[in-house]
Amino acid sequence: MTKQHELMVTAGSLQECAAYMDAGASELLIGDACYGIRMPGYFSDSDIREAVRLGQARNVKVMMSMTNIMTNDMLRLLPDYILFLKDAGVHAVEYSDPSVLAAVKTYAPEIRLHWNGEMMSTNYATANYWGRKGASRVAAAKELSMDEILELKQHLEIEAQVQVHGMTNMYHSKRRLVESYMIHQGRPVKNGSLDKDRGLFLVEADRVQEKYPIFEDEHGTHIMSSDDICILEDLHLLLQAGIESFKIDGFMKPVSYNTAVIKAYRSAIDAYTADPGKYKFREEWLDMIRELQDPERELTFGFFYKEQVY
Amino acid sequence: MEEVLSKPIYRGKRVRLEKPELLAPAGNLEKLKFAIHYGADAVYIGGQKYGLRSNADNFTFEEMREGVEFAKKYGAKVFVATNIYVHNEDIDGIEQYLRSLNDAGISAIIAADPAIIEVAQRAVPLLEVHLSTQQSTLNWQAVKFWKDEGLPRVVLGREASLEEIAEIKNNVEIEIEAFIHGAMCSSISGRCVLSNHFTDRDSNRGGCCQSCRWKYDLFEDGRDREEESDMAMQPAALKPGITQLPLFEEEDHAFTMGSKDLCMLEHIPDLIEVGIDSFKIEGRMKSIHYVATVVNVYRQAIDAYFEDPDHYVLKPEWLDDLHKAANRPLNTGFFYDIPDHEDHIYEPEEKAAPYDFAGLVLEYDEATQTAVIQQRNFFKQGQEIEFFGPKGAFFKQTVHEMWDEEGQPLEAARHPLQRIRMKVDQPVAYFDMLRRKH
Ligand code: SF4
After folding, report:
1. Quick check: B238 and A70 CB within 8 A?
2. Chain A residue nearest residue B242, CA to CA
């Protein structure tokens, strides 16, 4: 028997949860408006309970993304919220700030902790450090290369999660940069919002073919990558390495697109699990994604095969 | 649940016995000496590895030793920034590097990554570990976590307000360090990989190329809503057949993420009363003139406050001095409120500082009232220059007679680092500086 590989997808609503489970997701990552960040939608308490119930019926684990950088204000409701998550039956909490780790250990030690330091999760020593503090999984930084991920995995004492598909965050500021710019120009934002549904993007003079989505919400300004990671062709490398969870970030994508992506990765994972020796990548999996891919956003290997200097 | 003290009590005066530490950047050995001579209680520097300024002229261990020796004479300390996010390949050398820092007499490292923190605590327990701002710590529970891990100091994220700092201080007994002056990432520290995407340089290992200060155009996707545009310009095609709505006009400034520099000089009492233990100045890449000037004015402000807190007033000449060494727009960051449109830079940036560092006083001879000056920038007879030194020493004079080392009269000081003897109107001392308006 080969090892179990999870397929994690971010979901923004109960409908998405259902659709993504149908398509083959085995882990759902959801978030609320205060502690979650850059999630496709935010879940109320009753929605969280319902999502867990839906998941349990199909043996799908529901996890909370709580990777926001916490302020004192956010701490006040944190214990009650953790107690609620325990009661709702949430399987795991993804954290970045140590205050979340501390609260989960104090109020709901039975909830699993996954460390997602965003740009910080760059090496195995730090991941293992968080493991000793109570984390059972690390979400690798999206800026790592394939070699780094494989080496990370070799030395890990906890599970590894790797984002294999979707856009990534390039920049997060607490400043209201778009609103400030509009006011500076003398054209304050009328009635419209500046959130992710507005379709705002930046273009840089030397890279006119690239559109970098930008939006503002209560957590500040976010700038996103102009390309979508797609590691499908080389998924077997990560499967061989024994990566426990593959994440599809469905952020800022239509449900139909995410559904196709999940199906494609599900096919690959199932084929590999059935017989790793005979596994072969099939172009038709990728075609399912290509068909629905935004023509202005390239599918790339992200940082997997990029040499970075400093 | 633990007791949470949330009242913003920072306005009330507290009894404080100790002055906060004034912590200055030192990009190289010379800057270290100036920073300390002009009043820094501690400096932070970068070594050859693990720091976030890969292109500053970082210290060798030999230079560190010399810097530590120099600092000792003033009772000052030297910290080393080891604040990268570690990658697998960086892990092996950590212990050796930290041992060398310890042997060089370094007092503390500033680290963000537990991969470095843990090694330091195990291998060199006498080397203090300060948690870097790269951990973006903004709440007291996180601060408490790091305290429980054995860290004596946390450098807060730059987004912390005075009110939040007060609450942290009220809940956790630990040294708090905060940036009070200088340029800042406009992003949450570490949460920016623009350089990685644009130029394949890892910003969290020192490769940042300031992409936040580049110029961008802001558009709205026009694919669904061409008719909704309220802009005068026609939708332009990014690629054939695809429309986008520009959210700017021809004469508008470009979009940018660049923020104004932080300056808390006018709010020293607030910083002291809230209990910040270390006032940190940014700028390892900045000039000697800048570092000496900025340290000098904050030193004076802090000392003046402690001499008589009730009658403390900001001296206008401190602000004037700051503006002589740098000409960048300033603001108060996140201390009072979330920055808005007035806190960002859209106009063309970085006009040169209005004053040049013209020379450095090496010696003073009382009998002849002359000084030996090391030339740092052109000046000539008849020009007005300013002398300044630590503790606010200051006077203006006209350049009168000058001689070179052989005693030959000089019209002008033309050569970099040339030793020049000149008449001075008032006594000066080694390390005093000359500046000239240009
Ligand atoms: S690009 Fe700007 S915000 Fe990003 S790391 Fe560099 S200085 Fe900081």
Report:
1. no
2. A296
